[in-house]
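Changelog-adjacent note: as of this version, every example in the card shows the full chain rather than a window. The one below runs 337 residues end to end.
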Amino acid sequence: MLLSGFLAVAPPSRAQIPLGPVTVGAGLRTSFEDTTPATGNSTNQFLLNDVRLYVNGPVTNYLKFMFNTDYDGVTNKIGVLDAVAEIGKNPEFNVWVGRFLPPSDRANLYGPFYAHEWNVYTDGVQDGYPFVFQGRDNGAMYYGTFAKKVKVSAGGFDGKSATGNYKLLGAARVQIDFWDPEDGYYLNGTYYGDKNLLAIGGATQVQGGRTATTADFLLEKKLASAGSFSVEAEYSKYNGLGGYNAAYSKSQGAYGLASYLFPKVVGPGRFEVLGKFAKADFTHGSTPSFAQKTTEINFNYVIKQFNARIMSFYQKENFNRVMTNLWEAGIGLQIQM
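Full-length structure tokens:
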């Protein structure tokens, strides 16, 4: 919700500074937001959304260590984001042990710092998988990339810390990159025109007969001197596992996102427009079922991709019952080093 960044396998766009064999990095997301519900008073806030510190480096030729922390602006606490022993030397065979993002949807694997839109994880669809902290869980996983096109990952994770159920939580994901390949295990929500990308992925998590399943899609195309466009989509179904609202045991939904990055450089960066629409249905709850529709529009100024960007946003959330409609608007700043 990241350096859904994770420097041991990070592609070149990830923020990092080498200090001998060790790399360190930091990230900041901060914003001003005006939130106005259909009933009640509006709020105006300056928010410190996220602050992250990243450290990783090699132990041997086959063993690497990654340690990342995150300041959670909601709880005002610092927590362990990633703490991973990574074993492996080639793309086909890698084992991670510790705390990290389990196999899940693309949205979880890019997190807030590498998401395309600002208001990630508010639509009832993206990354409803259970977690301990910021999408992470404690466990062990295998992942491999074959022919630079097919990415496979599977593992077992601590169910009690994520859901309160002592049974093991299993997770798996398969992704195919039909055009340009994507490096590493963690992903991006966009590559800002650096890749021609057509990727389809599917993931599932299972615990004691309860399931969470998603399918995701990303298309990105460079248009030579005409900039680049991107299309992202996802379908999710949370069947007794995960979801956005604990009062409802089942939910499902989908979203579509489209963007255009203008080719002309203005000052140090380029402008981008982005639109997203999502719909989610919440059922089997203690109160009546309801539907959520979310519309988001961004107008962004991209200075250095994920390392420096200014993002203005407007978002409207409509509910047919139970919840209160609201809209919010604001401007966010993200920097990384």
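Structural remarks: The chain has a mean pLDDT of 93.
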